[in-house]
Design a protein that fits this description.
The chain has 2 domains: 57 residues, no CATH class; 175 residues, Oxidoreductase, molybdopterin-binding domain (Sulfite Oxidase, Chain A, domain 2). It is 29% helix and 23% strand. It is built from 7 helices and 10 strands. It starts with a helix and ends in a 9-residue tail after the last helix. The N terminus is likely disordered. Bound molecules: the ligand Nc1nc2c(c(=O)[nH]1)N[C@H]1C(S)=C(S)[C@@H](COP(=O)(O)O)O[C@H]1N2 and molybdenum atom. The site of the ligand Nc1nc2c(c(=O)[nH]1)N[C@H]1C(S)=C(S)[C@@H](COP(=O)(O)O)O[C@H]1N2 has 17 residues, from loops.
Length: 252
């Protein structure tokens, strides 16, 4: 099932349960609590708003399922990526010692981190599932540092609404709200199943966001920006996904 049809089902189900008046109430609540996603296309009856708002109200503090070591998939799948740029190949040839993650925007101390610096912070692991909107999934152990740790380190403005994040691949950029950015399972990962994160899975650095579909877990991460202003990026829909027909909020 495509992400779109899945979303329609959720919305249809919600609307059926809530009734037409309920949809209006949900839309009202969404607006009141700032739960209107950047890619909403008009508030009333908007599938994006209902999905995001209802999931946020229900699941703000919920955890994605974690698995045991014995449930790790035999081979982590690697989705196809576009051909690597010359720039990326140079980083790769240098074993990524020069790779940098820049963190800027609404932060007290804009900072640039190397992968080794990120590795020097308290490392955590999670055994979670990557779920692609195309219908496949696998379970793996991810090593990294919680994004919340880095946001606290740079002094991210607690009032800011979003974290935008970018890959060295120009067509891969996303954003999440602060609830997901500070969520304990949102990691900057540099390790997979006990080894360095393979390039095929987004090495040297990738965000892992197990509560959303795979496409939100952007590979080859090189910049994070804390912001309130979604309009500054692309067409102002929160990420490149809505520009291509996928939802900005891809909760699972
Ligand atoms: N930079 C970048 N990040 C990306 C992608 C990509 O092509 N480029 N593919 C996304 C999609 S659609 C999925 S499902 C997951 C797949 O992760 P995997 O290759 O580790 O299985 O990565 C996501 N992150
Ligand atoms: Mo995907």
């Amino acid at each position: 099932m495509t992400d779109l049809s899945r979303r329609k089902l959720i919305v249809t189900g919600l609307a059926a349960t809530a009734g037409v008046a309920g949809v209006g109430v949900a839309a009202h609540l969404a607006q009141k609590y700032g739960l209107v996603p950047p890619d909403h296309g008009g508030l009333y009856g908007s599938g994006e708003t209902l999905t995001y708002a209802s999931m946020r109200l229900l699941t703000k503090h919920s955890l994605a399922r974690e698995f045991s070591r014995s449930q790790i998939s035999k081979r982590p799948l690697q989705n196809e990526v576009a051909p690597f740029s010359e720039e990326f190949k140079r980083f790769w040839a240098g074993k990524f010692v020069d790779w940098q993650l820049t963190v800027d925007g609404m932060v007290e101390r804009p900072t640039t981190f190397s992968v080794d610096q990120l590795k020097s912070y308290p490392s955590q692991s999670q055994i979670t599932e990557v779920v692609c909107e195309e219908g496949w999934s696998y379970i793996a152990e991810w090593n990294g540092v919680p994004l919340s740790y880095i946001l606290n380190l740079v002094g991210a403005d607690p009032q800011a609404k979003y974290v935008f994040y970018f890959s060295i691949e120009p067509d891969w950029w996303e954003s999440i709200d602060m609830a997901d950015a500070m969520h304990p399972q949102t990691f900057l990962t540099y390790g997979l199943n006990g080894d360095d994160l393979p390039v095929g899975n987004g090495g040297p650095l990738r965000i892992r966001l197990p509560r959303q579909l795979g496409y939100k877990s952007v590979k080859f991460l090189n910049r994070l920006t804390v912001t309130d202003d979604v309009k500054k990026f692309g067409k102002g829909l929160g990420s490149i996904s809505p520009e291509q027909g996928y939802a900005w909020y891809a909760g699972i």
